[in-house]
Amino acid sequence: MSDRPNPLIYGEFDRLVPIRVLGREFQVPEGIPLIRAFQFIQFELSAMKSDWSLFCFNDTIGCC
């Protein structure tokens, strides 16, 4: 993971919190929507793969 994830994607956050996905635990930014947490796991931790074209994840900022 990079030193500090892009705040334009994940927003500002103070700490990482644990979530469990299919029996695996990951540390993700506190307070972000679950779909963003999944993106964080894929892009920052390289631990998940998904076709994001199927989702409207940007609606969190009114882009859909």
Keywords, separated by commas or semicolons:
64 residues; alpha+beta; 22% helix; 19% strand
Summarize the structure.
A two-stranded antiparallel ribbon has the order 1-2.
Order of helices and strands: HEEH
Low-confidence stretches: none
- The backbone outline, from C-alpha atoms, is globular
Distance between the termini: 28 Å
Walkthrough of the structure:
The protein is of the alpha+beta class and 64 residues long. The chain has one domain. The protein contains 2 helices and 2 strands, in the order αββα. It has helices spanning 7-10, 34-43, and strands at 16-21, 24-29. A two-stranded antiparallel sheet has the order 1-2. The longest helix has 10 residues, at 34-43. It starts with 6 loop residues before the first helix and ends in a 21-residue tail after the last helix. The mean pLDDT is 81.
Can you lay out the helices and strands and say which pair or pack?
Elements: H1 7-10, E1 16-21, E2 24-29, H2 34-43
Antiparallel strand pairs: 1-2
